[in-house]
Amino acid sequence: MVGVEGEGFKIAMFALEQGRYTVASGATGVIRASRDASVAYALERETFGTKIANHQLVKQKIALMESDYQMCHLLWLRAGYLKNQGKLNAKETSLAKWQATVRSEKAASMAIEVHGANGYSNDYPVERYLRNCKAAVIYEGTRDIHTLMQADWALGLKKEKPARKTLPPWRPAESREAVAAD
Fold it and tell me: Are 31 and 100 in contact (CB under 8 A)?
């Protein structure tokens, strides 16, 4: 038995929330990988005598991937900061997971569009990014569940409850050594 009898649901929810954080991290990475692959391809591929990086719609897709990556990276970092401080973070982790997975799906799809017919071949990684991001949209709560959760928090219908047990705040090695020396 893990924990105390009758607390299984609380323990399962704690584990689920930890998983949401890692899913947000992975989905943020898919956005970055989609952006990086698209940038590299756009600077290499030529059509009509010019690199496709010069085409306005390709630039637009890359700009959207960049902005989505930056937003999701910040949401993920904020959730991680709260975790490291030992503070409640379910709302922030849910938001990071929700937005990163939705935007990773969009970024992977746009990366395939930037790559054109090559986006479907095994010669480029973007077809794999689209397959990989689909599962993350579903893991640890679907986008629909996270949408409802965020609405409930915004409306005041949902309150974050402290975990049964929490981890102590993270401290850098130097401060841990100083505490141990005292």
Answer: yes
Cα→Cα distances 48→45, 54, 55, 60, 115, Å = 10, 11, 10, 19, 15
pTM for the whole structure: 0.86
Active site residues: 140
pLDDT, one tens digit per residue, over 14-40 is: 788 889 999 999 999 999 999 999 999
Boundaries of domain holding 106: 8-181
| Among the listed residues 63, 72, 133, 77, the one whose alpha carbon sits nearest the alpha carbon of residue 104 | 133
pLDDT tens-place string over residues 63-74: 999 999 999 999
Please tell me the total count of domains within the chain. Answer: 1
Whichever domain contains 146, its CATH number is 1.20.140.10
Q: Whole-angstrom Cα distance, residue 153 to residue 167? A: 24
